[in-house]
Amino acid sequence: MKKMMMMGIGWLCLSNLAFAASCPDILKGSQRKLNSTDTVNLCEAFQGKTLLVVNTASQCGYTSQFDQLETLYQQYKDQGFAVVGFPSNDFNQDRGGEEASAKVCYLDYGVTFPMMARSNVRGSGANPVFAEITRQAGVEPRWNFYKYLINPNGDVVATFPSSVSPLSPNLLSVIKKQFSDVL
Fold first, then answer.
1. Which positions are annotated as active-site residues?
2. Does any domain span residue 1?
């Protein structure tokens, strides 16, 4: 009995190690949710999904893109797709606390896609997700609402500047290609 228990514990340890090893670098770790003490284990939440990662701001000319991002999320969330927002004040357009950012996202725009806590998305202080995105893509966000498409393997496959609408035909076709590449 003791031997079986030890084998079971060993198997669990190995399976956890295999899970951790298979998690793409971009999803390693946890992020705190916007205006919350809750955290999201990125690998558990998003591994194997196509992601549109966006640095957001609540006081920017592009803030209205929250509507389109939510539409995109609702349209494809059942197909292994998620929009993930990362509020940032790197461009001085998300002033105020997280409570103010949360109000804009959740109350003003009705956002239901995952929003992480405010953090830096550029430079040496960038959060780990954006540090890895920049390493892979070779492009830091140039402004708020810069968009990065991540395939189910955790690779950055496309970048879109702020001026590109989340519902633009070009962005939609690249997202749909990720779905067909998985099949």
1. 60
2. no
